[in-house]
Amino acid sequence: MNATPFCVRMSLADPDTLPKACQIIAQGGIVVYPTDTLYGLGVDATNEAAVARLNELKGRTGPISVIAADLDMVRAWASITQAEMEKVIPYLGGATTVILPVKPGVVTETILSDDGCLGIRIPAQPFGPDLVKQSGRPITTTSVNRTGREPLNDPDQIYEEFGTEIDLLIDGGTLPKSRGSKIYKYHKGKFIIIRP
C-alpha cells in the first residue's frame, strides 16, 4: 500500500482507548478491535452511512452480526418469547453467534437477513461488550479482511492493509488463527448450525 496510514493506533491496555473508540463510533467511524476469536471491524450498527462505508471496505453487502453488551441487551433486542429466550441463553457467550429475529429499529435494515434476523454475540474478550455498553449502540462484528481473503489477526498487517480506510486500530497483539465464531440460527424452537 502506497498511501500513509492515517488511523489512530492505540493499545488495548491504554485507559484512553475505550473513550476514543466511543467517540469514533459516535462520529460514524470504523474501529478495529480484538475479540476472543478474530479482530473485528466495528461501526455503529444503527448508522446506515457507517455500515455502507464498512461494506465498501470489505467489498460486500448483506447481513452483519453485532455485539451485545450482555443478556439483558439481547432480551431487549430479540423478537421472541421469554420461554424462547431461555432456550437461546445457553448458546450466547464466547465464540458463538446466534441469529435471532429482532425488533424493528434495533439496527439499520441493511445488515438484517431477508427474514428480519440479526446475528448477535457476546464475546468473552470484554472490549467489544464494553464498547457497546459505553457507546449505547450495537456495534458490528465482522472479520478484518476483503471478502474472499483470509482474516487478518496481526495488528501490523491490519495497519498496513487498512490503515487508510479505518479510524482506530486497537492493538491487542497478534491473535491465534481462528475461523471465527460458531454460528447458530434459532428457528421455530430449533438451533440450525450455519457455521461449525
Sum up the structure in keywords:
five-stranded mixed sheet; globular; DHBP synthase; 27% helix
What does this protein structure show overall?
With 196 residues, the protein is of the alpha/beta class. It has a single domain (8-195), classed as DHBP synthase. The chain contains 6 helices and 11 strands. It has helices spanning 17-26, 48-58, 71-77, 82-88, 127-135, 155-162, and strands at residues 8-11, 31-34, 39-42, 66-67, 96-101, 117-121, 139-140, 142-143, 168-171, 182-187, 190-195. The strands form 2 sheets. Strands 7-4-6-5-10-11 form a 6-stranded mixed sheet. Strand 10 and strand 11 (190-195) form a beta hairpin. The longest helix is centred in the first third of the chain and has 11 residues, at 48-58. The protein starts with 7 loop residues before the first strand and ends with a strand.
